[in-house]
Amino acid sequence: MEIVGGKRRRRSTPAEWVVYDGLTRCPYIRGQIARLPMRLPERVLDGNELDQRLAAGDRRQGMLLYRPRCPMCSACEPIRLRVSEFRPSTAQRRALRRGDRELHVSLGRPRASPEKVALYNAHKQGRGLWVGDDPIDIEGYEEFLVETCVESIELEYRLDGRLVGVAIADRAGESLSAVYCFYDPSVPHLSIGTYSIMKQIQICQESKLEFLYLGLYVGECGAMAYKVTYTPHERLVQGVWRCFPETDAQAAG
Asked: Of 33, 52, 77, which closes a domain?
């Protein structure tokens, strides 16, 4: 790490500028303090460089990469599926079949539109995820979900022509990383969140990618805990990827 022009530059390939490194309110656990250093790569990452960062626990938000470095908590665990070993549950297979029957899926590059902004805000409001934030506008949407420092893709899900879901993912050399998914809360029977993960697993299978990264698992956060139902999976615990063959609920059942 070196200091250049008052900002830190992290030695890596390519080098990265640390643009923010302060303490903030934890977005996952009420009452916790988070430290999420935000890093800006000097250029767009290639697939192998993104693989290395994902394996080290990095996530992406817009043009920036981050990795939790919280002072009093280690609840955030990066989680990934080794695609060749994944075994879907009955509910996951059912969601895939239902979605394939009822939804039209299109794949392209991330783009902003008033339709997507409205759906994003309806998703946040309908699922009670505002936590004091204002609705996003199109500029904020572009900064969060369109701007990127890697190769990113977008999946659109439509029901009878109406946009009901969007998922953003990053393509690396040997993996795909699920970045964000939002959907219409008025169609819960479609289980679009589950369906979207199953479609991304299909993309990995068709492209012969080894891993699908599902972001961070946070056991104390209900909105993140669902990820352990995808098994077997691996979680990065104290710097080591550990395999978790099944959840306690699955073992008991």
From this structure: 77
